[in-house]
Amino acid sequence: MVDVSTNLIEIARDAIISIDQNGLVCTWNKEAEKIFGYSKSEIIGQQITTIIPERYRKQHNDGLLRFLMTGKPRIIDSIVEVYGKKRNGAEVPIEMSLSSQKNEDGKYIFIAIIRDLTKRKKHEIRLRAQYAVIHALSESTTVKVAFEKTLRVICETLDWDFGVVWIYHQPGDVLRCEESWNVPTIEAFEFTKKTKEISFSPGIGLPGRVLTSAKPTWINDIAEDTNFPRATSALEAGLHGAFCFPIIIKKEVLGVVEFFSLKPQEVDNDLLDMVSAIGNQIGLYIKRNHAEKLLIESEKKHRKFIEAAHDAFVGIDENGIINIWNTAAEKIFRYKNNEIIGKSINAILTYESRNMISLSNKDKKIGKILQLSGKTKKGILIPIEMSITSNNESNEKLSFAIIIRDLTEEKLWESEILKLSRAVEQSPCTILITDYEGKIEYVNPKFTRLSGYTLKDCLGKNPRILKSENTKSEKYKELWETIKSGREWQGEFYNKKKNGEFYWESASISSLKNSEGVITHFVAVKEDITERKEMEHQLLRSQKLESIGHLAAGIAHEINTPTQYIMDNTSFLVTIQHNLFLTS
Q1: What is the DSSP string of 320-344?
Q2: 513: domain CATH number?
Q3: What is the CATH number of the domain that holds 153?
Q4: From CA 48, how far away is CA 341, in angstroms rounded?
Q5: How many CA atoms lie within 13 A of 428 on its CB side?
Q6: Which residues pair with 99 in a beta bridge?
Q7: Number of C-alpha atoms within 13 angstroms, CB side, residue 433?
Q8: CB 537 within 8 A of CB 519
Q9: 357: how many CB neighbours lie within 10 A of its CB?
């Protein structure tokens, strides 16, 4: 089976999943666990359809079978946006890049890089809601119309069911209902009647609490709230979740706006932050009560939201002429605001991309996210993601809001991940990754070929499975102290293979840190040096023998020298004695 080294990129911001040609999950990283809720032990070996919504499963199975039979892909090597299914049954919007490759057995492995789009979708929806509220306020001729449109826009855009505007009346120090709106699918007659009849003093009910605190307040479930005088009629109407925010200007609370949902809702602080800004916009409208002045002020507020966005925000009229251009758009396309305002949207799109969109309410692509090619001021082509929203229900004075994301870095990131994965898989060195506690999370194929241990053998175990008895415990203590301090450790190990054979390794071990600089993993890159050690041993042995030879020769020389002296003198004495004998 081909391993895609999912564990190598456990700290990646995207989910990495692989399946075999039978649709069984082979690889599942931590980001995949976060997105879908399944742990690795639960999902490995299960059908990938486990995380595919029921309505898409037949299409998936047919597509997989068609590819295996024909080899012709439809979505492979492209980026698509679909929905996945979480462990709790909820659906999650995802962006998926799919690729395929064959293993050594000639069987297909499919690799998916997946990004959770939930936050981005929420961000886009809320940005559109902010824009829609500003638009509703700016075109309204009366306060009543402005309130009705604001309630309807927020309910429809953010999926709430009932909204109320309360205005503060200084005489009496109370809040009274000024306007309400609800979706037509709920029966809320009694609750509406009660709402219009009642008034709230500071601290009483949800509106009164917000009047006192001048801050947004959230109720998960009205049924569990002890300070809600309209609870009976609200629950009869099926209302449960609620939040309320102040209409405020210069610290003065002019009123509050209240929303209800048919189901209990967990607190959403991002939403509360957004509606706080909307409360300020409504406050400006009430205070000035002049359409022309309100438009100017609301555009200033709106510009702050747009300028703070990480994505490009572009406004165009019905003819495609640009009238809003934020800082992010300048960074992406390199046009300054004064260079692009008044020009056609076509200036930043390729010819092919222009033909893919139509500025009409009837265009089915309106409201959807499109993958297109953009063009910078210098003519450089860049991959972009574009979402177009119409801000008018009729064809009169039609305008559009466009959210654009530059996909260049994402494309490069995906490419780098694939290159890194292949480099590690094909490395001539053994590579081993552990978590902070030393539990093995990944080993590459070279490790398996050298040690005999497979990834399955190693997962969750400590590298001490390789330990021989020849390495002192002090050395391991020094190793862990070094790498846990963030420094690199280098040294040699005399390890033991799965079959009991011993071998030498040269190792370099370092730490991996997350975006906050905290050590989360350790990586060991090791090289088999058994042959080198054997050669060193043979060389040392040869040198020892040579040294012994030199020593023996020296000793023999020292012994031979006095012996020769004695023999020479003995011979001399014999010769003298013989000569004396002849003379006599």
Answers
A1: -BEEEE-HHHHHHH---HHHHTTSB
A2: 3.30.450.20
A3: 3.30.450.40
A4: 48
A5: 2
A6: 111
A7: 19
A8: no
A9: 19
Distance, in Å, from the CA atom of 183 to the CA atom of 192, rounded to the nearest integer, reads 12
Q: Which two tokens stand for residue 140?
A: 């309204």
Q: 370 CB contacts (<8 Å, ≥6 apart)?
A: 356, 357, 385, 386, 387, 388
Residue 444 DSSP label: -
Q: What is the pLDDT of residues 354-398, one digit of tens each?
A: 888 777 666 667 778 888 999 999 999 999 988 888 866 544 566
pLDDT tens track for 307-361 = 777 788 888 888 889 998 888 899 999 999 899 999 999 999 998 888 887 776 6
For CA atoms 416, 418, 419, 425, the dihedral sign is positive
Encode pLDDT of 548-561 as tens digits.
555 555 544 444 44
What does the alpha-carbon distance between residue 563 and residue 556 come to, in Å, rounded to a whole number?
11
User: Considering only 134-143, 150-159, 407-416, 568-577, which range has the smallest mean pLDDT?
Assistant: 568-577
The domain in which residue 247 lies consists of 121-304
Given pLDDT bands bounded at 50, 70 and 90, which one contains residue 538? Answer: confident
Task: Name the residue among 84, 102, 81 with its Cα closest to residue 34.
Answer: 84
Whether 240 and 126 map to the same domain: the answer is yes
Residue the block writes with tokens 């009729």? 394
Number of domains in the chain: 5
**Confidence check: pLDDT of 542 > 80:** no
Round to whole Å and give the CA distance between 151 and 145.
Answer: 10
DSSP string covering 399-439: EEEEEEEE-HHHHHHHHHHHHHHHHHHT-SSEEEEEETT--
Of 259, 286, 304, the one marking the end of a domain is: 304
Scan for tokens 């495609």, then name that residue: 320
**421 belongs to a structural domain:** no
Compute how many other C-beta atoms are within 10 angstroms of the C-beta atom of residue 64.
18
Whether the predicted pLDDT of 142 surpasses 90: no
Rounded Cα distance between 170 and 175, Å, is 9
